[in-house]
Amino acid sequence: MSKEESPQRSARPRRRPMAVAVAVGLVVGVVGGLAAHLWWPGEDGGSEPSTAAPAGSRAEPVRSAMLGQRRVGVDVRARELGAPDFFHGQARLDLVDAGTAKAATHVAYDGGEGHPWYPPEVVLIGNRATITPHEAMAGPGSSPDNEYRTEPHATAAAEDDPDVHAALETRWLAQPAHIEALLDGATGVRTHRDGGTRTLTGSTPLRALAADPAVGALYLPYATDRPGSAVRFTLVVTARDLPKSLKTRVPSAADTATGDQSFQVKYRDWAEGEPITARPGPTPAPQWTAAD
């Protein structure tokens, strides 16, 4: 299964009638409506992205290790079950640089028990999303002729399209820029070593994350509700500084058992698969893994 290593406009989330999406690939379950209109910089995923980390960056070893592997698979779980915009699923990322990541995700609507799934694939390159019906199945995300469709402005489309919304958030959660913002903005980081594995724990002010140009998209609504709060994180890395998992707890005004919303990313399949591209034609993006 997993090969660990290889040689918004920002606004508060809007609520809609309950909708559930589960994924094969990005198995996405979205409960409630879409969150804020996500902000994402530039057609290429960042305006003038920098490949250099700040001097004294805590994140530099992890960032460099991730970029050295270039491609990675992830499992993602976002928010508490039953929360607006809850989802869980899988994706594959192609890391161009620390601030630019292409993403391929599989998503599906589940109409309820006993109803079929129609999982499209969402490929994100910059701020452009390409959505392709899975194999020969037609579903809610497909065009009438069962061919792919393109959203030239994914962040705008995400307001009304839960597949694109979840794909954007998945890329945001898993990319190196998120880890860099957490570690370098942290007020303190503790490290626990267990053999070749290191576990880094700390907290980063919500305001700092909301202001970050690469990952502020989701944090701004939470910072608006809880401006003086901090995000707690746990990052587990291997002896080669490659992430194994990242967990964050974000203070939220939502009614949850802990008062927080949790986000989890598990990393796998480093350096596997082909580059993520958006090719023309009826099936432009067979992007999953080398095994597929």
From TrEMBL:
Membrane spanning stretches: 20-40
Recorded superkingdom: Bacteria
Keywords for the protein's UniProt record, in alphabetical order: Membrane, Transmembrane, Transmembrane helix
Chain positions covered by the region annotation Disordered: 135-161, 264-292
Protein name: Uncharacterized protein
